[in-house]
TrEMBL record:
Name of this protein: BASS family bile acid:Na+ symporter
Entry keyword annotation includes Flavoprotein: no
Superkingdom in the source lineage: Bacteria
UniProt KW Transmembrane helix keyword: yes
Keywords (A to Z) from UniProt: Membrane, Transmembrane, Transmembrane helix
Organism whose genome encodes this protein: Bradyrhizobium sacchari
Coiled-coil annotated residue ranges, if any: none
Length: 335
């Protein structure tokens, strides 16, 4: 870079590095900023698809290929986690929601829950797991396999449960999901080839900061009307918010229990991945053509998604401390 241009880039780079260092605090603050500044949501809503593509591209770009190949040598746990998040979760949610009559009493809410269950985990989920101190390699591999399958599983479950609720056909939904994921993967591969994996790793902190800015764009676009919805019908909005938190933490708890034999820390990391559903991917695939209740639920799911890493950090620290303590004890016994 020419010396005359270095000062122009130094300040933004320092700002992004500082933002990336804020970690879970910045992720939690995003949800409140998005609600507190509604005009920001109105301004950014036209760019929600671009924000989702950018988030996916960054996540694919940062995949640790060595860790990915290493975990692929132990396929049983990966297959179990993938099957649970792509087949088990949408099937159980669909049966429970339909059995409770939600599809007839509140079609918009039923649609929201099904799109949430059908979505793949967020690409940022392993990064959030690592951010709070958990080993994120197993969730990362399961995430990659689940993301590869979701265009096919989502279209199947859309045919099974949604019927004519979507403005697009299940086949079109699957093709759009496939196109979005493929475009992001191609862009990420090109960036890795041009700049190199070592350069990406060396600039991890400013990339984290840029990722937080894109998360703000997405959250603002989705949550811009939340304040208005709470004023218009506070009881309903509070009920939907409680449901969003309940679904998030139920998925986290049930998944952790199912995979507890893999070790509590690993099970908790997989649970965090499964509970962080990529609703943005579904928004992009449906072009946002969703009922108001579905939009409201999607908006309110951002609260548990952004607050959970901050709230769960103490639990993650206890789990990692237990692992380190067990490792130290084993080392002492062999010395």
């Amino acid at each position: 870079m020419p010396p005359i241009l270095q000062p122009l880039f130094a300040l933004p780079l320092r700002a992004l590095t500082w933002l990336g260092d804020q970690g879970t605090r910045a992720v939690a603050a995003i949800a409140f900023i998005a609600v507190a500044v509604p005009p920001l949501g109105a301004l950014l809503r036209p760019y929600v698809t671009e924000a989702i593509l950018c988030l996916l591209c960054i996540s694919f770009m940062r995949v640790d290929l060595v860790a990915l190949y290493g975990h692929l040598r132990r396929p049983a746990m990966i297959a179990a986690a993938t099957a649970w998040t792509t087949i088990g979760v949408p099937l159980i949610v669909g049966l429970l929601a339909r059995g409770s009559g939600l599809d007839s009493s509140s079609p918009g809410l039923f649609l929201a829950l099904m799109l949430q269950a059908m979505a793949s985990p967020m690409m940022a989920a392993p990064a959030l797991a690592a951010l709070i101190g958990l080993d994120a390699t197993l969730p990362l591999v399961a995430l990659v396999t689940a993301t590869a399958l979701v265009p096919f599983t989502a279209s199947s479950f859309a045919s099974l449960f949604l019927g004519g609720m979507l403005s697009i056909s299940p086949l079109t939904l699957g093709l759009k999901l496939l196109g979005i994921l493929a475009a992001s993967l191609v862009a990420a591969t090109a960036i890795r080839w041009m700049v190199g994996a070592k350069t990406i790793q060396r600039h991890k902190r400013p990339i984290d900061g840029f990722n937080i800015l894109i998360l703000l764009v997405f959250a603002s676009a989705v949550m811009g009307d939340v304040a208005h919805d709470f004023v218009a019908d506070p009881v309903f909005a509070i009920g939907v918010a409680l449901l969003a938190f309940a679904v998030y933490f139920t998925l986290l708890a049930v998944t952790t229990l199912i995979f507890r034999r893999a070790g509590t820390e690993r099970a908790f990391a997989i649970g965090l991945m499964v509970s962080q559903r990529n609703l943005g991917l579904m928004l992009a695939a449906t072009a946002g053509a969703l009922p108001p209740t579905t939009w409201l639920y999607f908006a309110l799911t951002q609260f548990p998604i952004h607050l959970a890493p901050y709230l769960l950090t103490p639990i993650a620290r206890r789990l990692t401390a237990h692992r380190h303590g067990a490792g130290a004890a084993a080392a002492d016994s062999t010395s």
